[in-house]
Amino acid sequence: MNDSGNERPRDARKKLEALEAAARPTFWGFLGCELASADGDKAVIALQVRPEHLNLAGIVHGGVLASLLDNAMGLVAILACPGERTVTTGLNVHYLQSSSEGRLTCEAELIHRTRRTLTLEARVADNKGELLVWGSGTFRRVT
């Protein structure tokens, strides 16, 4: 992460660690999200599939996958607007394949920005690299 263009990597890493620690007692932590990386306008989060993530069909619940997209894109929005509040105003989810075990990875990227809104896209893949979900989201700055 390099928000300001001149922030030292060590300082950026400490900010990310503090942000993840603050998120642990929230839905982020309840779901089991983990920060894998964040740099500039991109972030990667991961989730180890647990039995409580599955639906009655034995596959990862669509709400878990949508939450991964929203959490990863939300993280990028937070990093893009430091010190400001951002909220999800739209979330589009395209379910492509199912999964029932392993580690899921979600990569999110900022693709457009205006004065008040951010548009992002994200992908969830399984531990074999198979694309499970693709989505886009819009976020609004509310400060």
TrEMBL record:
Keywords: Hydrolase. InterPro entries: HotDog_dom_sf, PAAI_dom, Thioestr_dom. SUPFAM superfamilies: Thioesterase/thiol ester dehydrase-isomerase. One of its GO terms (molecular function) is 1,4-dihydroxy-2-naphthoyl-CoA thioesterase activity. It comes from the Bacteria. Residues 58-131 form the Thioesterase domain. Pfam families: 4HBT. One of its GO terms (cellular component) is cytosol. Belongs to the thioesterase PaaI family. This is Hotdog fold thioesterase.
